[in-house]
Structures are given as structure tokens and as C-alpha cells.
Amino acid sequence: VNITYLKKYKERSDMYFREPPHTEEEKEERIEEVIALVGEDDKNKKYYCLFKGVDPKITVELSKKQFNRIPTTKRLNMLATFMQLVGTLREEEEGEDVV
């Protein structure tokens, strides 16, 4: 293994200038800042989203009511992108094993 170009990992926390919303009220106030849907829980009707300016390793749980407050066009685009990603992942899982 060539390790000539390996560098020590340095976390860049200064890139993310916002904290995720913690309270229900804060989620409601910042609903316009949702930038991506990364997961959903059909059973409990929860959506897991990323917020603008927040570390992308941090997801925020939104209720169905909160998620539906996202402007329609943006919400539909996020759902389409998410469903496309999920479909791609399922296709990869169902694909044949190559030996």
C-alpha cells in the first residue's frame, strides 16, 4: 500500500455555521432551510432531513405535518430524488453476485 499521499484527517467544523433545530418550534421556524430528505420511517410517519448550513452528518427528524409544510415544489423534488436513490440502492442489492 502506497501511503505517500495520506494526510491526517482534520475535521472542518468551521464550515458548518448553524446548529440543527432542537425544539419543535425551532423546526417549524426553520422549515424553509431543509435541503434534502435522507430517510423516512413509514411506520412512525417521520422524515429525516438535512438543513442548510448544518453538518451533513446530522439529520433532523420531522413529523409528517412538519414535512408537509415544506413548499410543494421543493418537497416533491426532494421526494423524487430520495425515491430515485432508494430505487438505485434496491437494484444494487437485488443484483446478481459476481464471482
TrEMBL record:
Protein name per Swiss-Prot or TrEMBL: Tkp3 protein
**Which classification does the entry list for the species?**
Eukaryota, Fungi, Dikarya, Ascomycota, Saccharomycotina
